[in-house]
Amino acid sequence: MAITVRRPAPAVEHRADGEPVRLPPGPRFTPRNVLRFVTDRPRLLREMADRHGPAFTMWIPGFGTTVVLTEPAMFNELFHIPSDVAGGVEPSLDVMFGDGSIFGKQTAEHKRHRRVLTPPFHGRNLRAFESLVEEETRKEIAGWPVGRRFATITSTNRIALNIILRVVFGAEGAEFDELRELTPKWIKFGAVLFSVRPLQWDWGPLSPWRRHLAMRRQFDDILERLIVRAQADPGFEDRTDILSLMLRARHDDGTALTHEEIGDELVTLVAAGHETTATSLAWAFERLSRHPHTLGRLVAEIDEGGATYLQATIHEVMRTRPTIDGTTRRVLVDRMRFREWVLPHGVNLYTATSLVHNDPRYFPRPDEFAPDRFLGRMPDTYAWTPFGGGVRRCVGATFATMEMAVILRTVLTTYRIEPTDEPDERIVFKGLPFAPARGGLISVTRRERPAASPGSPTEPTGCPYHHEKPEPS
Ligand code: HEM
């Protein structure tokens, strides 16, 4: 059972302008540490915390000097620092997806973007999306091979991409097919460009940057067609896709969002929302096939129309295999005080999620895959952080949880997953998510008698995400 470590937000003044810099101790820069940060991150961070203490400073590729935090109480403090003191990391994905992306926004601008993006992914809208998720899952899994091992990630990627494209663009027909072809290619390419700074320079007509711009133009062209179609729709005012919501949204001064702003934000949602969810699902299949007892209990519950153990299982998958290992904030003021340290402008703070998720002080017997630890209780906000925290916590967290629940339920009522005693799949870094090395291999057989109509995983009873705290404003 997770220990609750919540404590009141510290009433300390975080600005320390003019004071001498005092960074926590940390390792010297070595190419080996840089390499290990990419290939062996959880173990490296554990070693560093044991050697230097629960907060230490190290150089992180892509971000530079970074203070790594390894305790929930520290995450709590960080997530409560005003966003004009510790804000979003820079550079961020807005380098690839444009100035209109929420990733590049700070303070009031960031808040404004969240006001537009948060409501569609919450509350009663979720229920409306459930049937869409089930429909896309059924379509995809109808072709799963029986009795032969296959990597689930290919399938979960397709399902999650189709879902997010439909939710975001309301797209059907030719434009949907074009987006399905273009966006994953562009986002993958963008992730490479994002991590290698020189690739962001325009070296000429054959340069990667020009290729990126060509894909952007193609995207803008599809978007314009979708905008014309949406606005011509007699039911435009009632449409719930995010594109229509953004077309109807107004800035505080009453002006509409430009099409460029809308495009930047929408591609951000697709980038943030599909590979993360798909990878978590592949981990769920990898974990379940190695834990037949959990799998059996889960199937029995689903057949009876329940969803409590399902939710606990999703929480445990995300504890043991978080796809995003940590979140980063950047010091935006001249000097920022954090506990006994004084951090200069531009330094980053990183919350080491997987370290806390595997710390026996917060999760007893952390190596065990034990959904019971979350049964009937919500995970602690600062010890369980696969979706980050504070005012930048993942906008799609509730949506992603619903999506995973519906997909798992649909798969488990259709197929029987064969247990395996193969070793666990290795955790490998795939540019953004930490994924199973072999893509979540499973083998399935068709269930002879489809289960009686299962209940909704978003039933208020037993559905923890209906109890989630409202978004911080
Ligand atoms: C299992 C699936 C997912 C995981 C593990 C995940 C994880 C994360 C994490 C760790 C962050 C950073 C939070 C922080 O800095 O505190 C984030 C941000 C974000 N996520 Fe997700 N995410 C998932 C699904 C989604 C989905 C489905 C969407 C969209 C529908 C989405 C949209 C976003 C957006 C827009 C942000 C930026 C929020 C901001 O800067 O204010 N994510 N996500």
From TrEMBL:
<protein>
    <submittedName>
        <fullName>Putative cytochrome P450 138</fullName>
    </submittedName>
</protein>
<feature type="binding site" description="axial binding residue">
    <location>
        <position position="394"/>
    </location>
    <ligand>
        <name>heme</name>
    </ligand>
</feature>
<dbReference type="InterPro" id="IPR001128">
    <property type="entry name" value="Cyt_P450"/>
</dbReference>
<keyword id="KW-0408">Iron</keyword>
<dbReference type="GO" id="GO:0005506">
    <property type="term" value="F:iron ion binding"/>
</dbReference>
<keyword id="KW-0560">Oxidoreductase</keyword>
<keyword id="KW-0503">Monooxygenase</keyword>
<dbReference type="GO" id="GO:0004497">
    <property type="term" value="F:monooxygenase activity"/>
</dbReference>
<dbReference type="InterPro" id="IPR002401">
    <property type="entry name" value="Cyt_P450_E_grp-I"/>
</dbReference>
<dbReference type="InterPro" id="IPR050121">
    <property type="entry name" value="Cytochrome_P450_monoxygenase"/>
</dbReference>
<dbReference type="InterPro" id="IPR036396">
    <property type="entry name" value="Cyt_P450_sf"/>
</dbReference>
<dbReference type="GO" id="GO:0020037">
    <property type="term" value="F:heme binding"/>
</dbReference>
<dbReference type="InterPro" id="IPR017972">
    <property type="entry name" value="Cyt_P450_CS"/>
</dbReference>
<dbReference type="Pfam" id="PF00067">
    <property type="entry name" value="p450"/>
</dbReference>
<feature type="region of interest" description="Disordered">
    <location>
        <begin position="1"/>
        <end position="26"/>
    </location>
</feature>
<keyword id="KW-0349">Heme</keyword>
<comment type="similarity">
    <text>Belongs to the cytochrome P450 family.</text>
</comment>
<dbReference type="GO" id="GO:0016705">
    <property type="term" value="F:oxidoreductase activity, acting on paired donors, with incorporation or reduction of molecular oxygen"/>
</dbReference>
<feature type="region of interest" description="Disordered">
    <location>
        <begin position="443"/>
        <end position="473"/>
    </location>
</feature>
<keyword id="KW-0479">Metal-binding</keyword>
